[in-house]
Amino acid sequence: MLERNKAGKDLWEMLFRYPSFNRRFWFTLLIVIVIFLGLACLLLKNVDTSTDRIATLNLIIQSATLVLGIFAAYYALRQLVETRFNGLDEAAMVELQNGHYLRAFQKWREAFYIRSEPGVFTNMCETVLLLGDYKKFDDLMRLSGKIGFAKKELLQESSEQIIVLYLKTIRHLLVKNQGEAERYIKDIVQIVKKDGLQSFRWNFADLVRSRAYLDLIGECKDIAENLIAYLSENIHPIRKNDFEQGKFSTQAQESTVQEPTKSEAPPTVIT
Length: 271
Prior knowledge:
By secondary structure, the protein is mainly α. The protein contains 13 helices and no strands. The chain starts with 10 loop residues before the first helix and ends in a 27-residue tail after the last helix. Mean pLDDT is 78; it is low at 256-271.
């Protein structure tokens, strides 16, 4: 049976859509500043004597110095966060290889909070596919179409677009939605014909060994196998030609052409 864990949402995701480290930092700092200003105004309003006003102003200055210290600490914290990002990315890959898909997703999600990298995003999408959480996958795909992604130039390279289309295709093949899967394959073929696969790098091993893929049968399994072979550039020219012409489930085999055997020379007759 396919593992059906739900990825779920954490507190930050309830407030924002995968907020970055910067966004969370400034959001928290804004709340602190608003509270600080509110308390400062309240204190100044309720203070009557000049001595108390001076003491209050000193308190405000000290508080402002603390806020400036937070700003200074931010840049030092950025370096620590970068180290954390690299550690999460590596740990998530290990979890994925061990078949711990939910843990891998959670680590990549935290890494994506820190820095919105296309590779982290596509890895997240694959892990929720392996979890069988198709609703979460669809939510992530809708997120990829948001204006924030375009501004940050995420998923703009042809290789990244192929990965997203590949994941969408596999998503529909896993639920036996062949018609929708073929629509995305046509887009993949168009991009490959236009830009090639020189910069395309993707590891299909995690999908191939997953329970969801192993349980796939029929034409959907044939299409998935052909798609992986096509993107791996490990497909025979005959099958590749059929695949690019829309015969996505083709099982054409490599023709075996045998060399004509040379007939033995007739024995020499010695007279």
